Amino acid sequence: MTIKSRMGKAWAILIFLAIIIVLLSLPACATSSTQEPDPVIVSVLPYVSYGGLVLAQQEGFFADENLAVEFIRLDDASQAIPMLVQGAIDVSGAGLNIGLLNAIADGKVKIVADRGYLAAEGCTYMAFLASPAWLERFNASPVEALTGARVSIDVLNFEGFIFEQVLSDYDLTLDDIIPTDISPPSLLDAVANNSVDIISIGEPWLTRLLDSGLVTEWKLHHEIVPDMQFGMIVYGPTLLVERPEVGERFIKAYLKGLEQYNEGTSDRNVELLAEYTGLDVELLKRACWPPMHADGIITTDTINAYQAWVLSNGLIDNILPVEEYWYPSFVEAAGK
Fold this sequence. Notes:
Strand order of the largest sheet: 2-1-3-12-4
Order of helices and strands: HEHHEHEHEEEHHEHEHEHEHEEHHHHHHH
Helix content: 40-55%
CATH superfamily of the largest domain: Periplasmic binding protein-like II
Number of domains: 2
CATH class of the largest domain: Alpha Beta
Number of helices: 18
Number of strands: 12
CATH architecture of the largest domain: 3-Layer(aba) Sandwich
Largest sheet: 5 strands, mixed
CATH topology of the largest domain: D-Maltodextrin-Binding Protein, domain 2
Distance between the termini: 65 Å
Structural class: alpha/beta
Radius of gyration: 27 Å
């Protein structure tokens, strides 16, 4: 065999091998093209209690689980549950209220992880604030000051439940006060204009209002109802029924976010949450960051106590047993 024919044969072998390599790579390419990130839409509000979600997003923990998470900022937290039930969103950072209980009772949503509780020995994340003038009246005659007091509060959510614990010490109920609906940005003006006596508020507005010098702390929520579960991660039917495997990966990433969140006001955490909330860095460092269980578990006792209060006021028909509102399988799977 001549050198030329040998070279031709070698080239033919090389070309053949190259074709084989290309053909073998085609299935892998086709497979990777089908592994698009799973979309997940989450409703959020610009509060520190959404920190676990924010850090999971910003640090790429959701992306690591092949999830394309989109945050939808709402103007009003009450919009979230109807959107969740309808499938317009997949996840909500919900608060404890009657709307959530009703949606759970209808079998549409479940609580799947912690998003904040009022630790008995923790910092003050929520409090009742009052003007010095009202406090003078209260110290002189508590019942007279509380009767007809103008209170900025949502009487139907857990704030109403907590405030009625205070009122009961004076044989009063929520029927004895005048609830007012004042948005947080308008609270300073309301206090300055003497159009409100008591404010139920959480961070960051709590620190902002105290900085004004127009109000002072009166009663602290975590001292009235220790370990109150006020925030939770809630799933709708799209993740509970249609895509539970996506729900498992979401919680796995979220718990990584919670782990970093629980490191507190590190430079990295402050940087990312300041960007998300739009808060001043120094304010964010001074504000209370509500604790969250790193394993995602919620405290059910206070949810049951809230339900009993709502039932006693004729606002729900039945108390939901724990197994109907708390669905721990996602955090358990993530823990494994």
